[in-house]
C-alpha cells in the first residue's frame, strides 16, 4: 500500500484536515447514539416493561430508542457534509498533481501531450475521490458503531462484552493479515487489464500489417497472455473473497453463536432475559454490520483506492515543491560561475525533414550580464532561436547550455527557474495584480513588487488599476498594459536568462526603453528580439538573422559588415537615434 507514497499522501491529506475530521468525528458520535443505546434500552423494555407486565413502561423505553434513532439519522446527514469538506480538497490536490504532471510532460523539450493519458487519469481521479470518501465512511462507521456496541455490551455486563469482543478481534486479525495480499492481487488485476487493453489496441490498429506479415499467431499469443494474466489475477482475488467471508464468519457470526451457547450460563450468573436479548441486539445490529461494512468496504473500494492512487502517483510523481528532496540540477542563484551563462553549440533546426533549416550549425556564447539584440526580417528564425534557447523545442543537432547545464537534460521544473521567455502575446490572468506579478516568484514580498513596478515604469498602471491587491480583468487591459504586467513578472522571476520575443512591441518607445533598461540592470543575461532599432542600439551586441550566415557584432560593426542590418536600420523610423549613434561611430 505504501508503494509510490499512497500511505504518505493519504495521511498528509487527513492531517491537513484535522478540523474537518474532528467535525466528522463529532457527528459520527451523535450518529452512533442508537448503536450505543439499542441493546440497553431493549433490555430495560423487556425486563422492566413487557416481562414485568408493564406494557406502557416497555413501550416508553422503546420510545426513547425511537428518539435516539431520529437523532442519529439527523446526524448522518451532517456527517456527509463534513465528509465533503475532507474529500473535495483532497480531490483538488490530486487533480492539481495530474494537471501539473500533464503540463510538465507537454512542455518537456521532446514531450508530446498525451491527452488520452490525461483523460484516463481524470477518470482515475474520480475513482480516488469516491473510494477515498467510501474508505473514510466505512472506517469511521466501523470505529464508532463497533465502539458504541462494545460500550453498550460493557454497560450490560463486562463478561458479555468480553465474549463478543474476542471473536470480533480474531475476525479482524484474519482480515487485516490478508489485506496486503489482496492489494497485491488487485494491483496485478489492474495492471493486467491495462496491458490487455494496450495490446488489444495495438493489435487492432495494426491488423492489416499483422495480416500482411502473417503474424496472427504471435499477436494472438500476446493478447492471450494478458487475458490469462488478468483471469489468473481475478481468480486469486476471488480466493481472497473467501478469506473475507471467513473473517466475517469469525468476527460477525461467532459472537452470536458464543452468546447463544453461553446464554444459560449467563442467566445462571444472574443476567436477565432482557440483558441477553440486548446483548444479541448489540451483536446483530451493531458489531456484525459494522464489521461487514468494513470488510466489504476495505476489500472493495479500499483496494481500488490504493491501486488507483498508486497508479496516479506512479504516472505523475509529486512535483519538486511537494517533495522535500532537492531537484536534480540546481539553477544558478547568482552570476554564473566559470561556464558561460548561455552557450549555443552547432545548433541545426528545421521544422520538418524537408523544410529549409531555420538555423544550421549555429553557435553563440553569452556571458553573465550580456545584453544581445536579435534582428532580422520576418521569418528569419528569431522566435525559433528564442524557443531553442529556452529549451522549448529540441534541435536536430547541437546543444544549448545554460550555466553549464544542457537544457534538453534539465528537468522542466528546474528549467523554468533558469530562463524566462516572454512572448509578444502577454499572458495575464484573472486575479489580483499581485497574483499576476508573483506568478514566477511566489515568495516575493510586497516591497519587492513595488520596487519592480517602479523599475519598469509600471507605477502609473498599478495606480490606475487600484494597487497590488486590485483585481485584474485581462480583457479590459490594452495589449501594451498586458505586456507591461508580463514584463514586471519576468523581471521578478529568479531566472538568470531572460528572452524577450518582441515582448514590448505594444509599449510606447519611452516605456520600452525603461523596461529594457530595467532588464539590462538586472543580473543575468538578456536577449531581446528587437521590434525597433532602438532596442538594437541599447544592446551590447546585435545578432542579425536573415536566412544566410548569421552575423554578430556591435551596431557600428554591423553597419559596416551587414547589408541586411543596414537595410533594417534604414527601414526603422527611429531616425534621430540612428543618426546620433551613426555619427558617434564615425571616425574623427
Ligand atoms: P517574425 O519576425 O515574423 O516573428 P521570426 O524571425 O521570428 O519571424 P520564426 O517565427 O522563427 O521567424 O520562423 C522561422 C521560419 O520557420 C519561418 O519560415 C516560418 O514560416 C517557419 N516556422 C515557424 N514556426 C513554424 C512551425 N510551427 N511549423 C513550421 N514552420 C514554422
Automatic annotation (TrEMBL):
The chain crosses the membrane at residues 21-43, 55-75, 132-154, 160-183, 245-267. SUPFAM superfamilies: ABC transporter transmembrane region, P-loop containing nucleoside triphosphate hydrolases. It is a multi-pass membrane protein. Residues 318-339 are annotated as: Disordered. Residues 342-571 form the ABC transporter domain. The keyword Nucleotide-binding applies. Residues 28-289 form the ABC transmembrane type-1 domain. GO terms for cellular component: plasma membrane. GO terms for molecular function: ABC-type transporter activity; ATP binding; ATP hydrolysis activity; ATPase-coupled lipid transmembrane transporter activity. Its main location: membrane. It holds the Pfam family ABC_tran. It comes from the Bacteria. Keywords: ATP-binding, Membrane, Nucleotide-binding, Transmembrane, Transmembrane helix. PANTHER family: ATP-BINDING CASSETTE SUB-FAMILY B, ATP-BINDING CASSETTE SUB-FAMILY B MEMBER 6. This is Antibiotic ABC transporter ATP-binding protein. It comes from Micromonospora inaquosa.
Amino acid at each position: 500500500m505504501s508503494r509510490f507514497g499512497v500511505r504518505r499522501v493519504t495521511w498528509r491529506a487527513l492531517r491537513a484536515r484535522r478540523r474537518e475530521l474532528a467535525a466528522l468525528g463529532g457527528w459520527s458520535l451523535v450518529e452512533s447514539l442508537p448503536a450505543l443505546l439499542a441493546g440497553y434500552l431493549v433490555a430495560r423494555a423487556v425486563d422492566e416493561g413487557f416481562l414485568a407486565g408493564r406494557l406502557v413502561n416497555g413501550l416508553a423505553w422503546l420510545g426513547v430508542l425511537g428518539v435516539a434513532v431520529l437523532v442519529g439519522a439527523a446526524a448522518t446527514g451532517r456527517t456527509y457534509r463534513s465528509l465533503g469538506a475532507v474529500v473535495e480538497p483532497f480531490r483538488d490536490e490530486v487533480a492539481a498533481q495530474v494537471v501539473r504532471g500533464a503540463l510538465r510532460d507537454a512542455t518537456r523539450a521532446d514531450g508530446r501531450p498525451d491527452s488520452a493519458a490525461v483523460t484516463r487519469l481524470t477518470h482515475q481521479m474520480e475513482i480516488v475521490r469516491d473510494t477515498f470518501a467510501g474508505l473514510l465512511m466505512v472506517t469511521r462507521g466501523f470505529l464508532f458503531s463497533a465502539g458504541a456496541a462494545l460500550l453498550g455490551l460493557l454497560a450490560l455486563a463486562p463478561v458479555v462484552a468480553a465474549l463478543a469482543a474476542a471473536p470480533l478481534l480474531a475476525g479482524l486479525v484474519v482480515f487485516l493479515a490478508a489485506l496486503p495480499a489482496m492489494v497485491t492481487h488487485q494491483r496485478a488485476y489492474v495492471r493486467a487489464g491495462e496491458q490487455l487493453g494496450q495490446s488489444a489496441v495495438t493489435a487492432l490498429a495494426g491488423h492489416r500489417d499483422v495480416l500482411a506479415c502473417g503474424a496472427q499467431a504471435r499477436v494472438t499469443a500476446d493478447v492471450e497472455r494478458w487475458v490469462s494474466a488478468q483471469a489468473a489475477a481475478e481468480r486469486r482475488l476471488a480466493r481472497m473473497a473467501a478469506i473475507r467471508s471467513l473473517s466475517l464468519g469469525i468476527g460477525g457470526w461467532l459472537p452470536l453463536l458464543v452468546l447463544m451457547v453461553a446464554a444459560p450460563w449467563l442467566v445462571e450468573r444472574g443476567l436477565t432475559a432482557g440483558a441477553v436479548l440486548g446483548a444479541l441486539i448489540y451483536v446483530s445490529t451493531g458489531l456484525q454490520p459494522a464489521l461487514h461494512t468494513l470488510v466489504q468496504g476495505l476489500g472493495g473500494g479500499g483496494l481500488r483506492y490504493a491501486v488507483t492512487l498508486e497508479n496516479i502517483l506512479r504516472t505523475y510523481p509529486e512535483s519538486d515543491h511537494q517533495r522535500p528532496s532537492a531537484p536534480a540540477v540546481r539553477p544558478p542563484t547568482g552570476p554564473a560561475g566559470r561556464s558561460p551563462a548561455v552557450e549555443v553549440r552547432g545548433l541545426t533546426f528545421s521544422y520538418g525533414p524537408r523544410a529549409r533549416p531555420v538555423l544550421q550549425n549555429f553557435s553563440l556564447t553569452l556571458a553573465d550580464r550580456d545584453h544581445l539584440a536579435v534582428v532580422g526580417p520576418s521569418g528569419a528564425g528569431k522566435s525559433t532561436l528564442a524557443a531553442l534557447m529556452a529549451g522549448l523545442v529540441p534541435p536536430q543537432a547541437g546543444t544549448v547550455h545554460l550555466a553549464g547545464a544542457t537544457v534538453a537534460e534539465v528537468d522542466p521544473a528546474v528549467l523554468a527557474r533558469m530562463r524566462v521567455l516572454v512572448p509578444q502575446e502577454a499572458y495575464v490572468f484573472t486575479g489580483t495584480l499581485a497574483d499576476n506579478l508573483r506568478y514566477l516568484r511566489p515568495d516575493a514580498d510586497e516591497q519587492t513588487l513595488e520596487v519592480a513596478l517602479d523599475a519598469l515604469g509600471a507605477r502609473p498602471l498599478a495606480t490606475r488599476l487600484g494597487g497590488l491587491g486590485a483585481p485584474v480583468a485581462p480583457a479590459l487591459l490594452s495589449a501594451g498594459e498586458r505586456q507591461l504586467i508580463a514584463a514586471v513578472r519576468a523581471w521578478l522571476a529568479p531566472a538568470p536568462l531572460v528572452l524577450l520575443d518582441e515582448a514590448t512591441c505594444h509599449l510606447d518607445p519611452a516605456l520600452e526603453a525603461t523596461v529594457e533598461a530595467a532588464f539590462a540592470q538586472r543580473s543575468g543575461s538578456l536577449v531581446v528580439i528587437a521590434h525597433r532599432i532602438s532596442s538594437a542600439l541599447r544592446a551590447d551586441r546585435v545578432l542579425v538573422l536573415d536566412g544566410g550566415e548569421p552575423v554578430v557584432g556591435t551596431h557600428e560593426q554591423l553597419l559596416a559588415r551587414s547589408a541586411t542590418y543596414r537595410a533594417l536600420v534604414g527601414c526603422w523610423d527611429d531616425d534621430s537615434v540612428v543618426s546620433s549613434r551613426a555619427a558617434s561611430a564615425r571616425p574623427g
